[in-house]
Amino acid sequence: MAEEVVRELRASFAAGRTRPAEWRAAQLKGLIRMIEEKEADITAALHDDLSKPSMESYLHEISLAKSSCKFALDGIKKWMKPEKVPAAITTFPSSAQIVSEPLGVVLVISAWNYPFLLSIDPVIGAIAAGNAVVLKPSEIAPATSTLFAKLLPEYVDNTCIKVVEGGVPETTALLEQRWDKIFYTGNGTVARIVLAAAAKHLTPVALELGGKCPVIVDSNVDLHVAVKRIAVGKWGCNNGQACIAPDYIITTKAFAPELVDSLKRVLERFYGKDPLESADLSRIVNSKHFQRLAALIEEKEVADKIVYGGQTDEKKLKIAPTLLLDVPQDTALMTGEIFGPLLPIVTVEKIEDSIDLVNSKSKPLAAYLFSRNKKLQQDFVANVPAGGMLVNDTALHLANPYLPFGGVGDSGMGSYHGKFSFDCFSHKKAVLIRGFGGEATARYPPYTAEKQKILRGLINGSFIALILALLGFPREKR
Amino acid sequence: MEAVAVAAGAREQLRASFSSGRTRPAAWRAAQLRGLLRMAAEMEAQICAALRADLAKPRTESYVHEISLVTSSCKFALKNLEKWMKPKKVPAGLLTFPSTARVTAEPLGVVLVISAWNYPFLLAIDPVIGAIAAGNAVALKPSEIAPATSSLLADLLPRYVDSSCIKVVEGGIPETTALLEQKWDKIFYTGNSKVGRIVMSFAAKHLTPVVLELGGKCPVVVDSNVDLHVAAKRIAAGKWGCNNGQACISPDYIITTKSFAPKLLDSLRKVLEKFYGKDPLRSADLSRIVNSNHFNRLKALMDEEMVSDKIVFGGQSDEQHLNIAPTLLLDVPLDSAIMKEEIFGPLLPIITVDKIHESFALINSMTKPLAAYLFSKDSKLKRQFERNISAGGMIFNDTGIHLTNPHLPFGGVGESGMGAYHGTFSFDAFAHKKAVLDRSFLGEANARYPPYTHGKLKILKGVMKANPLAMVQAIVGCTGGA
Question: Alphabetically, which GO biological process terms does the record hold (chain A) (predicted)?
């Protein structure tokens, strides 16, 4: 089945269907219409899959997908134009340009936590760049997956844009095919499998993975604002099930009590005294992840570090916002990506020590610092490798289409959003244009010392040498 | 076992050096690049001697195609280093108002460069230039199939650059495998697609991003509407004038019309005789075949039944000296080995078609090449070629030279590779572009926070539609009612 799909898309692509700007614009407009007309259905699917609050469904998925479409629509004509670049003296006379061409037939494998956005957003890039695309939505968000399978054919050209639903067997079958690019959003274990499959066909990939996104909190801050922004980036993003949600906090031993106190107050304001009943928190996606998270806080050496929250409701798959203080570094909670509503706070003597601690772990997708201290800010930006970073807020950088969104090291490779999405799915073909004039016979065998001298001069940028070369020195019989 | 120890040891040392921050300052990077410049200038004779030993490479080619390109690559990096290292401001956007946004380039860390045998000096140093410019520590594994250059690099680099951060590890398959088993922050490989797959499989285990500069069959389409003499010279220079065809961007095969082929052949023969004389096996201006392995491979391509009788020029070979003369073949079968594999040698098949447009389908029936060439004055044909042929790069009315333009990305697509380098692209290949968003504690939009209400949603929708009133409401802390 995977083979047939690829065959059909290759034929559509070879027929040139996806190349014209009009076709690409029409697909993007179709997606915008789909988002506008089916907003209620999309919100309902996200609620089914994640109990996602409708505010988050709108703000974090629907509106971002729509603005991404619009940004691409606005940019397409410009992005598709060849980019002229300076010509080199060594190839004088010539003109040079870089042409963006589609890679061909691409595969987008999406994730379960932002199942609408993380499917549409890469597909937007694939379409804008002129590719045919297969979307494999996450089976762990089945309502959204089904919705895509139903809606996309109604709104876009399904000879070139297809949805293939399924789990591990279907994904494996897709990965065995030859694609011109694979775009995967998810975790590091599956990413290695995707990359190994891609290696067999020399298929380039973009991997949007995760990691433990640290939040360093200095004492020199507006604490109330900082804490609100941390909370909204953590529990206000799918209840912590987001690749860029704060994973853990680092602060000084001295400042920790104040910070914890402030967090508790904000959490109570946001979610009330009984957060398990709050309609403003996503549930945990399924029982597998519920068990995983419950085990993290039940671990010996961890359970007694809970300073707030910890309540769970297995039937409803809910876990309340939970704060922990100084959990040992070698616990599961502190080694793997949490991806849930648990927020450990680690204390250090001096705030500067936090940088070494962050760097002792693998490079995260995002890193955050709350501080007014300019030197600490500079140190943080210069010395903490991460996909992206924010100073004095969390998560927002993904809303800026001029910033590349992607990881580094274990948090991924490649990036997208805005024009980076277009570039991600394009090949930048170098084109050098010459006429038949400007023959430099010094270039041709038989090689002589005189010719070499002229060439040396030419290469070193000497205009005289260039002129001599073009005048056909050294003179030879034709 | 020893190979593993050497590989692990090299990587550990490089990691320690990188962690100490040695490679970060612009001054360090510039010093290394100047060291490489000095090395290319002071050691020109030794480098040419090594290339002669490894490939019988003519001195002119050693200078023009390897040494001078390294020199200009270093100079370009030195000139642009400060600009590349500066963060680039980007528009901040209304949604995160007030904020500033920028993209900063940071080194990936510790990188591995695996080089090729055909341009063993250039293809080792050029990627290393990018790695250094971007602030990485780097391990270089030169090709063992060019042993004189490999030894020379192992000897010279420690004398000219900081060997705590730039190391040469020599060796063959066991040593390369041991290196590939380590965790690197990037692997840059130049070579063939079979080993490219192996490199990428190793990289997959550590989620290491790669650049693969591979090859393919670079086609040359020759229209009848050309200056034939100039075209023939330029094709010949790109083929036999580039390491006797052993170059990833050498013309691999020609496509022309049945009616034009005789003229083209005639012109090529004349040019070949002018370039290399009546006895090309004796010409000092042709590289030899690198080793007997490749010599036998090329001989087998020519000797295949249904192919050997298509030789229309050349075909002479000298096994003792590993020389094969420039050889033209006319209309070999498309399913012969010479038309299925990358030739990488001095054999040039010419395939004829009825109409020149048929060349497109033929090219597209093969995997995407590293370079594609068209000789024609016909603008329409050129436009169609550019639109319908996908290749790493392309040139109209010449061959090979696009790699000398540092403003053009040099790299493949599909089977011919992934990623690109040269000029700024070398720096980018070895850097991570980190997004940085800066906010202050002002500009709090309470509408953003739970508990979520209709009023807040309304304000935020307004902000997203860039409605100024909504923005003001958001910032002055309205929540639009409970």
Answer: aldehyde metabolic process; response to abscisic acid
Of B106, B285, B417, the CB nearest to A446: B285
CA distances from A412 to A237, A364, A390, B42 (A): 20, 9, 18, 42
Report pLDDT digits (tens) over B400-444. 999 999 999 999 999 999 999 999 999 999 999 999 999 999 888
Total H helices, total E strands in chain A:
18, 18
The pLDDT tens digits of the residues spanning A174-208 come to 999 999 999 999 999 999 999 999 999 999 999 99
Assess contact for A92 and B404: CB atoms under 8 A.
no
| Cα Rg of chain B (Å, integer) | 27
Which token pair is B119? 């341009």
State the nearest Cα–Cα gap between B5 and chain A, in angstroms: 24
Contacts of A439 in chain B (CB under 8 A): 230, 233
The CATH number that domain A214-409 falls under is 3.40.309.10
**Does residue A76 register a pLDDT over 90?**
yes
Q: What predicted TM-score, i.e. pTM, was given to this entire model? A: 0.97
User: pLDDT class for B266, splitting at 50, 70, 90?
Assistant: very high
A80 phi and psi angles, rounded to 5 deg:
-75, -15
- B342 has catalytic annotation: no
CATH number of A1-85+99-209+415-429, picked from 3.40.605.10, 3.30.980.10, 1.10.3720.10, 3.40.190.80? 3.40.605.10
Measure CB to CB from residue A270 to each of B64, B433, B449 and give the nearest one.
Answer: B449
> Which are the catalytic amino acids of A?
208, 243
> What's the rounded Cα separation, in Å, for the pair B398 and B376?
10
Catalytic residue, from B213, B218, B242, B342: name it.
B213
Contact A429/B393, CB-based, under 8 Å?
yes
